[in-house]
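During the no-cost extension, the postdoctoral fellow (Dr. R.K.) reprocessed legacy sequence entries with the updated structure-token encoder. One reprocessed record is reproduced below for audit purposes.
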Amino acid sequence: MRYEKSENCIQIAIMISGEGSNAENIIQYFETFLDANIACVITNNENAGVIPRIRRYKVPTYTTKWYKEIDQILTENNVHYIVLAGYLDKLPPNFCLKYKYKIINIHPSLLPRHGGKGMYGDNVHQNVKKYGDDKTGITIHFVNEEYDKGSIIFQKEIKVMEGDSWQTIKSNVHDLELKYYPKIIEKFIKGTYKSLYENE
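Re-encoded structure tokens follow.
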């Protein structure tokens, strides 16, 4: 069911490359909000699992790898904020500059540990296991032109037990993502975290 949204509601775009469980969770979370709306989903992968996953929500979905096209899509949909939910591409500097403090991402570790190029998905959890970390978690952060280097908005940690496999670690971290990402997005778009960047 699509709710009648306010004319001046905040428009959010989700950018994603993969299966889309986080994207679906975010869409579900904001379905009943009258003052915020998921305006569109953009994927750079024509075979992304997110495409069939979210079809029933009737959210406009676009497939493109070109940032000029992405910029045009964002403009046409009057997007205010961009949420990355497993988007596996480095955003170009001019794009990051144009949308400075308007793009946020979730990373499946406690940055700065296990961040940077190549550190996404299973690779992160395997590294947590490999290096014997006693804790891990999620980091929600602003996006800039460097991998995982944007200012941190929110972190939540969990313990890693000695017998945990990397698959168990992955599952536990994914539970955190589903629980916290939509809530932090809501607080972010309402200005709760403004104090982190207003003086930069």
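Strands lie at 10-16, 36-43, 61-63, 81-84, 103-107, 135-142, 152-159. The chain has a mean pLDDT of 93. The remaining legacy entries will be reprocessed before the final report is submitted.
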